[in-house]
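CORE FACILITY INTAKE
Project code: CF-77B
Contact: R.S. (postdoc)
Sample description: multi-component assembly, two entities in total
Requested service: structural model of the whole complex
Turnaround: standard
Below are the sequence entries exactly as provided by the requester. Do not edit them.
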Amino acid sequence: DSGVTQTPKHLITATGQRVTLRCSPRSGDLSVYWYQQSLDQGLQFLIQYYNGEERAKGNILERFSAQQFPDLHSELNLSSLELGDSALYFCASNEGTVNTEAFFGQGTRLTVV
Amino acid sequence: GENVEQHPSTLSVQEGDSAVIKCTYSDSASNYFPWYKQELGKRPQLIIDIRSNVGEKKDQRIAVTLNKTAKHFSLHITETQPEDSAVYFCAAPQRSQAGTALIFGKGTTLSVSS
């Protein structure tokens, strides 16, 4: 158990819908990273939050957004869903610097039908 | 931003053989290079990392080497066992004005047959 909690574990939804994925980081960790894992694309970095503020941005679509709340949990919002958004979404956390181990949650498997 | 390329995409070895996975990165300022292992249906987990002030690091059967001049680093697994079968990802930091995040290679699927 990494200490990072993601909910829900599985999500099935229709095209055009909106979903929210939730991540609770390890106790004491200030930084949260979101990654998308599709079959042939490895781990694609989406966005990073540190202590409530957006810090780094990767290849995140405009239809996707995220935030980190005062209690440090984070939510990833995916809207106007398309079939191609079906993937495993991982959240990772660490104390804040990239040069330390990032602990991954178990992921949320999103299926868009 | 940082670009990380990883080869090979698949690797099959016999139990007891060695396996080598190579990655190249583009940002010469990068100074931290971790390797993650992801077993089927599970989350990625760190197995070893190296910082730019050393050229090699070992932990039992696994080792990582770093060549900063050539901007590449490699994972070496010796005496492979069936439980080493997994997807392995290398990573390097991508720096932006606001922050830094790990950028991962596309992964190598290692299959160890007994």
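Facility notes:
- Chain B has no helices and eleven strands.
- The interface with chain A takes residues 31-32, 34, 42-46, 49, 51, 89, 93-94, 96, 98-107 of chain B (CB under 8 Å).
Invoice: internal transfer
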